[in-house]
Input
Amino acid sequence: MSTSGIDSKNLAVVVNDNDPYSLEIGAIYVKERMIPTSQVIHIFLPTGVSELPVSQFHRIMRDINKKTPKHIQAFALAWTTPYRVGCQSITSAFAYGIEPGLCQRSCKTTRLNPYYARGDIYRPWDQLKLRPSMLLAASSIDQGKSLIHKGLSSDRSAPKGTGYLMITSDPVRNSRAPLFEESIRSVGNKFKLKIIHSDSLSNAQDVMAYFTGLPWVKKINTNNFLPGAVADHLTSFGGKLTDSSQMSSLRWIDAGATGSYGTVVEPCNFIAKFPHPGLFLTYYLRGDTLIEAYWRSVAMPGQGLFIGEPLARPWAPQKSLLKGGASGAKPMHGQESSQDPDSEGASQAPDGP
Output
């Protein structure tokens, strides 16, 4: 079995022929990443809507399954909307199908991702019957082009950047803070990580990772995000890309990040529903692509939306990747937050842009 992981030879690009953004960004991505035309799948989705009905999704997936070559291990979805299927993110729906009853279990634990912390899985479809998926989402065609350029320019760049782990004043959305010291220990001297006690980071010129927890994050445009950088904020509706009452995850892409993540419906502040910084960086630093490292870092991604340039690979694959090692990362059970789930509700007012 191949241990090369996800790359242009086994990634399919799905294009919405009804969407001018999708047509242009999809074509650019296919050309720049040299993806074979046999791996481009054309479908017809409604435009200008955030949600795709479950019944329509089932019909579309039947068509996609017929068109998808058997060797495909992951999907790049070349659009920004729709970003959800019922109460589920469209990236998790494409990855492993519909998770029944998610609307009734919004603030409860959800399906455990079998790819989570599995550094030994290189062909997720062949081994797990799961195709990690990521939206090539941006607020405009120009921003989409910039996103693709950021991903391409990150490849094997071995950036000397910094990862910023923010401990904020928001006690509910700050639930990942207990993971930060552990993340520093797991990364060791392979990469510089800083724990910052603040609600914002400003004028940092070397941002390679930015993990925080707030409904709105200020001053992000003052920072310089290096090619391949990832940034996300733990809050309820960051994954509502175009109609959120909180900061959309697209703001990170507009600011220069190459990848981000957010939830599309109220998840409550379960740590397991958001990226684990230490796991993400462990896999990214060993040479995984963005889509691999990000998907491996979320235990329960049913409500979570992955956006970015999936094939960005800032660090060249290490021998441990090629030989099947997990670089010290081990499978973990999803962790629940001890906070009252209702305290992460939509009724909380944002604290300003």
